[in-house]
Amino acid sequence: MKKGIKFAKINLIVLLVFTMLFGCENRAKKDISKNETPVAKNEQLDLSKGFQLLESNCFACHNPKKVIEGRIAPPMSAIKEYYITENKNISEEDFIKSLIMFIENPNKENSKIPEAIEMYGLMPKMNFTEEQVTQIAKYIYQSKFEDPDWYIKHFQNEKFMHLENLKNEVVSYKDLGLQYAMKTKAVLGKNLIAALKNKGTKEAVAFCNTRAFNIVDSAGTALNVTIKRVSDFPRNAINIANNNELNFIYNAKKALVNKEKITPLVQDIDNKMVGYYPIVTNKMCMQCHGEPNSQILSETLTKIKELYPMDKAVGYGENELRGIWVVEMNKKE
């Protein structure tokens, strides 16, 4: 009987110890989960989206590698140095405001790096939302771009980490199409800027005639989508917009006249999801699409007429709708 009582006591002690240990573990887990606040999670997602946007849209020109040859824009390390290091006490909030101001309206007044404008010229206006620029700015501010070996030391690990963070994110067709359009624009823009810088406007017209279509088509193939540029006043007849596209162009132009932002549109057409995204002119565009014999030099105009006898793509001003990206996507299963 005493042995039974003793055994029962031992069992009771073991049960109490187990309960205490298990309870502590649960409390620890609860304490940890308390630290994983929605705010912290959203902040991490913003950083991951910022990295993704930079890789898809910005690194093509703002190369993070330590290379000088062929550079067509300042590297990210230089951007961070000028915006942050030169203003040692700048807050993340003020940095975001400065970047939004410049990206929404790239000009000398809004730039913090006048030397870069002299060396590379003004960057084209990008079709980012304010939320996207904020995500890009957050990532730049918190990154280690200032490390000269950032690409070698950090790029692959960062890419893997941010892909993991975003793998469960549900991306709408509208955002997915925008990603494809911006990736294609980045590749095409990089090549066009290089042609302008190295060979001048006249030869850049020849570049567009022989290579632009293939670059866009190849980008679509690589992304597994069909992508094209169309306009109501095309330079090349193959880029004429169809009725659905013309309707979007009409509404987009109306939005610009009313000083409203153009909202991309996705339609379900023939069992495909088709997205429309604006192409808005900037100062660089005026060299080939501005006013003949004033903004467009006579030798450039002669080349345009030679290569595009039916050209309708002149007479534009800055911040006008030049055309649209059309992205045709397969439906998700």
TrEMBL record:
Tell me the keywords, alphabetical order: Heme, Iron, Metal-binding
TM regions (residue ranges): none
Q: Does the keyword Iron apply?
A: yes
Enumerate the GO terms in the molecular function aspect. electron transfer activity; heme binding; metal ion binding
**InterPro entries (UniProt xref):** Cyt_c-like_dom, Cyt_c-like_dom_sf, Tll0287-like_dom
Domain Cytochrome c span(s) in chain numbering: 45-144
> What is the name of the protein in this document?
Cytochrome c
